[in-house]
Amino acid sequence: MSPSPASSLKIAKFGGTSVATAAQLRKVQAIIDADPQRRVIVPSAPGKADAKDTKVTDLLYLCQQIAAQGQPLGAVWDGIAKRFTSIASELGLKLDLRPVLDEVRTRIEQGANADYAASRGEAIHGRVVAALLGAEYVDAADVVFFDRAGRLDAKTFAAIKARCSGSGRYVIPGFYGTAITGEIKTFSRGGSDVTGAIVANAMDAAIYENWTDVSGVLMTDPRVVAEAKPIAEITYRELRELSYMGASVLHEEAVFPVREKGIPINIRNTNRPEDPGTRIVAERDPGHQVVVGIAGTKGFTVINIEKAMMNSEIGFGRRVLDVFEHLGISFEHTPTGIDTMSVVVSDKQLIGADKASKLDQVVEDIQATLKPDDLKVTPGMALIATVGQGMNHAVGTAARLFTALAKARVNVRMIDQGSSEQNIIVGVEEAELAQAIRAIYNEFA
Ligand code: ASP
User: Fold this and answer.
1) pTM for the whole thing?
2) Helix (H/G/I), strand (E/B), else coil: 144
């Protein structure tokens, strides 16, 4: 499971804001120069330089759409080209980007697909970053492959390892690879994170550094708790629980390739390289920190079904879930009692293709097939996940959680102690979400 002890190699992935301008790239250069083990670098395309800016990837998608309508690329393309050439010239790089820019423009004008167009942000910027760092440029199209089903082809790992076997620096652009058809294919948005994780796996890296613009994953949403602290260490599973409830840090698929080899991920801040950031690891010693994070989301409906003796009615639970399945609704949780069963559904799931709510149909079908004694629908619910490995075993954790909520006068409407033993989920009214998160944070932070 753990990476070979001999490995000290670090993979450094830099996100869009870290590589958005020449000034940002100087910070990247300083970070790479500060540690000779940072030898394989995975950059994103230039992201937003400021709040009003547009990501290069978005502009490239736009170019592809303009071309598809038979219109000239005009100012949109000129803006993209200028972005790259001015970054390169501000950095004083002796790099002639004209041939590659011309080729990309021509191919987009000739009707290249959206994946090709979008991927060029990384493909072109990778050359700039490689020139800046004195690294060898490795086109991701030559080492990252997708199979017939569009999933990562396992031959990718050997290809990366073989191509980057020297002792120098390498730059592999993120976000894309080659499909089985030979065409360029991208991961989903934010996919440079995935490339970085795949490269870390392929190279048996000691660590996967993910450089971004925050000093790690925060314990909770800073819009709710302004002083929310960064998490020093969190396990892959805990992170998954938090992400599922809305905390977004890494691309969802970026965890699997590194987890497979037990390679830690370190989320770091390009603007504050002195901060240790968050380490995402296979196992952690909970110590005093039973709870690592708290995440909450609005937009759930709870359907509560009550029927005397339902616990002894064989097939009851299946029939309840059947109703949802037949209506094409996936559910989030199903807390049960002796004579009650609740189904928690995301409101998004209740909207049909025709935009109408499926809720009446759910109620009607449950009434008809299960003949419950009582059926209650509670809309406007928020779910809060309090996450921490083994917290269900830690004596008193639940008591502390519920006491904190009671003191804050939050009415807990639903409790689900996840079978993963990584979290306790509570349902509260949407209006009480922020208050509830603050109360839990203050208890455990
Ligand atoms: N540039 C791509 C995007 O904007 C991929 C990435 O930045 O990770 O989605």
Assistant:
1) 0.87
2) coil
